[in-house]
Amino acid sequence: MAAKKNQQPPVRIGYGFDSHEFKSGIPLKIGGVALPHTAGLGGHSDGDVLLHAITDALLGAVAAPDIGSLFPPSDPKWKGADSAVFLQEAMKRVKAAGYAIANLDSSLVLSAPKIGPHAGEIRSRVAKLLGIAPDCIGLKAKTPEGLGTDNTAIAHVAVLLAQVAKSKTKTARKKR
Length: 176
Ligand code: MG
Known about the structure:
The chain is an alpha+beta fold. The protein has helices at 49-61, 67-70, 84-96, 119-130, 168-175, and strands at 11-24, 28-30, 33-35, 39-41, 99-109, 137-142, 152-163. It has a single domain (11-175), classed as CATH 3.30.1330.50. Helix 1 runs parallel beside helix 3 (84-96). Magnesium ion binds at residues 18, 20, 43, 52.
């Protein structure tokens, strides 16, 4: 399975982590879905902790610069930005590197709200954003027992990329 020199590996793994603090009076968005809650996640963009971790996992898988380097919080351009924009840039880079997403797994760590009732909707939304089937999106939610992070939402994401076979038909057509 090991890639030879100057040869791309057939699969690549990516890992992403993110955390945001809860702030009252702002909307809560996780995985591109607005969730009913008394507080939202603070941050320069929309604070979507799950989309940020997915973005970093995708960027890491193709050894691209991380989300903070591509979309610096110091840039006013990204104030209140829809995090789907960051995800789209990461997907563009994955595609350019010659890969497609095989599957993705994630864990959310937060004390509230309960994710279970919204898990289906979040998986569908993330699947739609990534252009893959919902059964290729894993989503687990845990309470931060013993972590002392009750006012924080944390996301861990692992992603697997598979190399896209170069189209033979294209080359064959060119030869004609
Ligand atoms: Mg973030």
